[in-house]
């Protein structure tokens, strides 16, 4: 990695000024097959796009550089990245320790795919690292956490958990989707693997589904590349690689604005009588505000909150919003809002939602980069109508 600053690395790319054309922007290589010099000898190092593609290589080099890591793998979705890590690491009989607060798709993968394959998962409250230590066993191969978690914005002490995972010789993977490497770099804190849904903040424009795995472990990454790219065939398409590469150029600008807006929204909501609780690590009232200051370079762009009242009141409030879009997902330039119990957690039973801490009045609001006064006015007007 060069010693350039993050914002410079987000814009630079390995094929800048390519000898033939001098491209300032990396080209999109759509070819699925590449001409060979002779049978068995790939001409320019490429053979077949599922195995390797120049547009994907360029994005992977940029993603690794932003993380300060040696290797990155770009895949077709965040779930493809998570599945790749699991299936590259785990075998029947293995044990996983997972933060109990985590993205529903990851939990479904653990419960519905891994458990029937005789992979045992212990869910713990990882806000206290001693719970991770207490659950780990000689069979623990993988420790899994998000920080902050989706949708409750809980944090875990990445450095402390990395030390526990090391003791058990387990791989520690962190889903850093909410933060991006601009805000938090788990590998620097001792994690082994970082995964992303690039669909969110990394691309940032809500127009390409993708995922990434980033690590310094060369041999493990070779295996993960075999699993995710060659065997699953879950590679990111060249055009989507181009979109993510383009999105990355404004990542620092966007994250600064997402975070400034999110802080203002969180403070506004925390003071409002119609709001019962606000979850945002940037608030001093967040139980892990100090940890956020230690391991994050900001507080992220997602705010969750509970409206005073039941599901009907929360839904009535969402219907009154105009600037915010009623939609799942997060991380795009536009502010979104969802009633979590009936939208991203709508496939869970009431008991499962209760277990996950998702109340009927919980609203998740990924904050965009619009003018903050318009966002605050929109919220104030909708709350007045309740
Ligand atoms: C934290 C987190 N990880 C992973 C994913 C899955 O990403 P994708 O939808 O790109 O598969 C999501 C999606 O919402 C997410 O919020």
TrEMBL record:
Return the Pfam families for the record.
Cys_Met_Meta_PP
UniProt xrefs under CDD domains: CGS_like (cd00614)
Q: Which UniProt keywords apply?
A: Pyridoxal phosphate
Report which superkingdom the organism of origin falls in: Archaea
| PROSITE patterns xref list | CYS_MET_METAB_PP
Family matches, as InterPro entries: Cys/Met-Metab_PyrdxlP-dep_enz (IPR000277), Cys_met_metab_PP (IPR054542), PyrdxlP-dep_Trfase (IPR015424), PyrdxlP-dep_Trfase_major (IPR015421), PyrdxlP-dep_Trfase_small (IPR015422)
Does the record carry Kinase as a key word? no
Q: Which GO terms describe its biological process?
A: methionine biosynthetic process
- Cofactor list: pyridoxal 5'-phosphate
Q: Which PANTHER family does the record match to this protein?
A: CYSTATHIONINE GAMMA-LYASE (PTHR11808:SF15), TRANS-SULFURATION ENZYME FAMILY MEMBER (PTHR11808)
Family membership noted in the UniProt record: Belongs to the trans-sulfuration enzymes family.
Q: What name does UniProt use for this protein?
A: Trans-sulfuration enzyme family protein
Give the species: Halospeciosus flavus
């Amino acid at each position: 990695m060069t010693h350039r600053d993050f914002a410079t690395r987000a814009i630079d790319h390995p094929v800048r000024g390519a000898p033939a054309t001098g491209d300032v922007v990396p080209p999109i290589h759509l070819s699925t097959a590449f001409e060979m010099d002779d049978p068995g000898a790939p001409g320019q190092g490429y053979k077949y796009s599922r195995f390797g593609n120049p547009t994907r290589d360029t994005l992977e080099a940029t993603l690794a550089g932003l993380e300060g890591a040696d290797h990155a793998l770009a895949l077709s979705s965040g779930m493809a990245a998570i599945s790749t890590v699991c299936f590259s690491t785990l075998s029947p009989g293995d044990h996983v320790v997972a933060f109990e607060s985590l993205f529903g798709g990851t939990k479904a993968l653990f419960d519905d795919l891994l458990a029937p394959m005789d992979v045992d998962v212990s869910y713990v409250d990882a806000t206290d690292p001693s719970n991770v230590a207490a659950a780990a066993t000689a069979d623990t191969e993988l420790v899994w956490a998000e920080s902050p978690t989706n949708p409750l914005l809980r944090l875990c002490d990445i450095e402390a958990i990395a030390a526990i995972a090391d003791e058990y010789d387990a791989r520690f993977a962190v889903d850093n989707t909410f933060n991006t490497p601009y805000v938090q770099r788990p590998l620097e804190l001792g994690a082994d693997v970082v995964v992303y849904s690039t669909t969110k903040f990394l691309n940032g424009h809500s127009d390409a589904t993708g995922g990434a795995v980033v690590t310094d472990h060369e041999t493990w990454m070779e295996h993960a590349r075999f699993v995710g790219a060659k065997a699953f065939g879950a590679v990111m398409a060249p055009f989507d690689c181009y979109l993510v590469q383009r999105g990355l150029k404004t990542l620092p600008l966007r994250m600064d604005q997402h975070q400034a807006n999110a802080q203002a929204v969180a403070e506004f909501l925390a003071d409002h009588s119609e709001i019962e609780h606000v979850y945002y690590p940037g608030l001093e009232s967040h139980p892990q505000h100090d940890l956020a200051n230690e391991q994050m370079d900001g507080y992220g762009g997602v705010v969750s909150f509970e409206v005073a009242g039941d599901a009907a009141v929360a839904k009535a409030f969402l219907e009154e919003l105009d600037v915010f879009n009623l939609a799942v997902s997060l991380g795009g330039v536009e502010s979104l809002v969802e009633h979590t119990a009936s939208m991203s957690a709508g496939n869970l039973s009431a008991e499962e939602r209760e277990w996950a801490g998702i109340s009927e009045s919980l609203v998740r609001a990924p904050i965009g980069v619009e003018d903050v006064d318009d966002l605050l006015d929109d919220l104030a007007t909708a709350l007045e109508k309740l």
